[in-house]
Specification:
Layout lengths: L1 H14 L2 E12 L3 E15 L6 E16 L9 E12 L3 E12 L2 E12 L4 E15 L2 E5 L4 E9 L3 E10 L2 E12 L2 E12 L5 E11 L3 E10 L30 E10 L3 E12 L3 E13 L4 E12 L3 E13 L2
Antiparallel strand pairs: 1-2, 1-19, 2-3, 3-4, 4-5, 5-6, 6-7, 7-8, 7-9, 9-10, 10-11, 11-12, 12-13, 13-14, 14-15, 15-16, 16-17, 17-18, 18-19
Length: about 325
């Protein structure tokens, strides 16, 4: 199977129109210092017709660890993943995709094998999907699940003042729901977001967030509160991290009985991107966690950027620091 993937990867390297290359380094301080570095390459080729009709999409990802200290991410080996390959059909108000796609539907994040039907409109749209396999390869993360059976719907309603997005899906005996509703006025936004998981014979999971934000010309500020209502959050995160939680180290938000307050300040312009995130969580019985995350991306030009991230979490029992950096280069073949 890997030989076939290598063949597709090399074939893609010859014909790709757009490519992304990242040199990635990460260091973490726990009881002892650990570090990890890798070369991460993604090649993409997409044929989108100028008029409506049939198109195809193919991309491949290579992750090759270069260095690790103290067995950091020791489960990660050199991997080549055919991250997307699909046959698509577009019309003026709908689309259909068959194959492997990169999906971002709230609680579904990653590469999924299956079918997606899109119904597109200016205000109301929806997606119907059915997935049989899940696999994702990132610089410091790899996972796969060959036994999923997900059937679901994703709906969206948006106008100038209101935005509502909801996802409902069933994975065998599991039921998973996510919804986000926002009210906007004069660059102010007030939002409520919630997710729930239920299955026969398993613990239910429920988490919710309310937050307010204001956007400026090139900046953004947000204040929010999150609450975990039933036990630890686990099954809601089985397809990558939930968008409910922005924190790189988690800030213990998914721990039993967790309640979190946070603030975020973001600046994004043509020269750089800066993000500062601060949060405080009370969880379990009289335990606290404080986390601060700083991210900086500097755009050297349209093709090259460098990024750095510093994350620090202090809890009642331990402290963790994670530092990561990357050099990203986008090129066309």
């Amino acid at each position: 199977m890997k030989i076939i993937l290598i063949f597709f990867f090399l074939l893609e390297a010859l014909f790709a129109f757009e490519s992304d290359f990242s040199l990635y380094y990460e260091s973490i301080s726990l009881e002892e210092k650990s570090s990890f570095s890798t070369a991460y390459l993604e090649l993409k080729h997409e044929n989108i017709p100028t008029d409506f009709g049939v198109s195809y999409n193919i991309s491949a990802t290579l992750n090759a660890p270069i260095y690790r200290e103290n067995d950091f991410y020791d489960y990660l080996e050199t991997e080549i993943l055919l991250s997307s390959v699909s046959l698509d059909y577009y019309s003026n108000s709908s689309a259909f995709s068959l194959g492997r796609n990169r999906v971002d539907f709230a609680l579904l994040n990653g590469n999924f094998d299956g079918v997606i039907y899109y119904k597109l409109a200016e205000i109301f749209s929806y997606k119907l999907f059915y997935f049989l396999k899940y696999e994702t390869l990132l610089p410091s993360y790899y996972t796969q699940n060959d036994s999923i059976d997900i059937l679901g719907v994703n709906v969206s309603y948006e106008n100038k003042y209101v935005s509502v997005k909801a996802t409902a899906m069933k994975n065998r005996d599991e039921n998973i729901y996510h919804t986000k509703a926002s009210v906007m006025h004069n660059r102010y936004t007030l939002s409520l977001e919630a997710a729930a998981y239920s299955a026969v014979g398993k613990k239910n999971e429920q988490i919710a967030k309310v937050f307010a934000s204001k956007s400026f010309n090139n900046s953004f500020i947000e204040l929010g509160y999150m609450k975990n209502f039933q036990g630890a959050i686990d099954k809601l995160l089985q397809f990558e991290q939930s968008e409910l939680n922005y924190f790189g180290l988690g800030n213990k938000i998914y721990s039993p009985n967790a309640a979190n307050i946070y603030m975020e300040y973001l600046v994004d312009n043509k020269n750089y991107y800066f993000d500062f995130l601060l949060g405080y969580t009370e969880y379990e019985k009289n335990l606290q966690a404080l986390e601060a995350d700083i991210s900086l991306v500097y755009y050297i030009n349209k093709e090259i950027n460098i990024e750095a991230h510093i994350m620090r979490e202090e809890t009642t029992t331990e402290s963790t620091t994670l530092i990561s950096s990357a050099l990203n280069y986008r090129f066309s073949l």
